[in-house]
């Protein structure tokens, strides 16, 4: 049995590699990475390999445990607010929104796309009703692991629980850092940064949802987007 010692050095190593993942967002991490050609475990392996913390023997230990590919149609929920989370999923195609309702209005916390994990850790771990929903904004495919299987792995493979908690911590930290960084920018800069880093989301998500995530009023974002498109057309004509 293997045991990962999670010191600050591997945590920093993990943080650096997660930054690289963010830079590749929306792109395949492997040239043959498509939904029909690989079994579910292969997607999990590709994802974990980006963190460089798991050995071949450890992959062999988790491979026998059942995982399946879940398909969601646009508008379907991976998780509804008020429900207890019974699964977590690795997105292999599509875009989902993590959102909540505030005074009757939908607020977008963040978007999830390829090579990101859809889950509500608090609800999943402590069996409490989720305060947020996760909804498909396009046709989505996810490799899912259910609650009993996850905790069976934790019981027999201590390194699995340590690894997933560390990855979850780094992902959350990076997400909060990105959000804080965006909020220090002017609205135009926010949209430009978002459009550069998330072209796939930009093409699949309504502008009103992007406005909610960026904290910009929809009419203002429409003007910003229109000016950006006009500027891009002018540059092409030069």
TrEMBL record:
Keywords: Plasmid. InterPro entries: cNMP-bd_dom, cNMP-bd_dom_sf, RmlC-like_jellyroll. The keyword Amino-acid biosynthesis does not apply. The keyword Ribosomal protein does not apply. Residues 50-154 form the Cyclic nucleotide-binding domain. Coiled coil: none annotated. PROSITE patterns: CNMP_BINDING_3. It comes from the Bacteria. CDD domains: CAP_ED. This is Cyclic nucleotide-binding domain-containing protein. It comes from Runella rosea.
